[in-house]
Amino acid sequence: MTMASAFRQFLLILLVSAGAFAVADGVQVNDAWVRGLPPGQPVTAAFLTLHNTGDSVVSLEQMSSPVAKRVELHSHAMVDGTMQMRKVEQLSLQPDETLVLAPGGYHLMLFGLQRPLRDGEEVQLNLCFDETCVKVTAPVVSVLKESSHAHSGHAHHH
Ligand SMILES: [Cu+2]
Fold first, then answer.
1. Where is the signal peptide (predicted)?
2. How far is the CA of 17 from the centre of ligand 1 (A)?
């Protein structure tokens, strides 16, 4: 390999890692972000888009983050006129299926935050699909900057 081609390869790796984009075994993870809440909140939510680019069904089995004690997959559903969230035990993606985790719908719930998350900082999320795990870099977006259309109904008042 010449110096020039080695350098090009190095640039390519940089570009891929800068895109907040990850692939594991046919799963693409895009547009990941974490909701930044005022200090003192032990819980927050993370959102992203999953796309199965492979030929077989993939299941999201395990999630974790260095900034939280526990990460769960939740959904929101209207139950008797009120929005409730539930833990989702297993999520499967069919080939070519795209699933958007967004405020008001599916989300990753980060429990037991070790410290306040600052607006703009990057948080690592680990998603394990079947046998393969993928590390996702997700920027923190302050809840104050979220669009007013994206009502989440996701408050955890105490
Ligand atoms: Cu939740």
1. 1-22
2. 28
Q: pLDDT of 64-114, one tens digit each?
A: 999 999 999 999 888 888 888 999 988 999 999 999 999 989 999 999 998
**For residue 6, is it within any domain?**
no
Return the residue matching tokens 């996702």.
136
CB-based neighbours (< 5 A) of ligand 1, an ion: 74, 85, 109
pLDDT surpassing 90 at residue 7? no
Q: Could you tell me if residue 110 is inside a domain? A: yes
CATH number of the domain to which 83 belongs? 2.60.40.1890
**CA 110–ligand 1 middle distance (angstroms):** 8
- Residue span of the structural domain in which 32 resides: 17-140
| C-alpha 121, offset from chain centre | 15
71 CA to centre of ligand 1 in angstroms: 10
- What is the model's pLDDT at position 36? 95
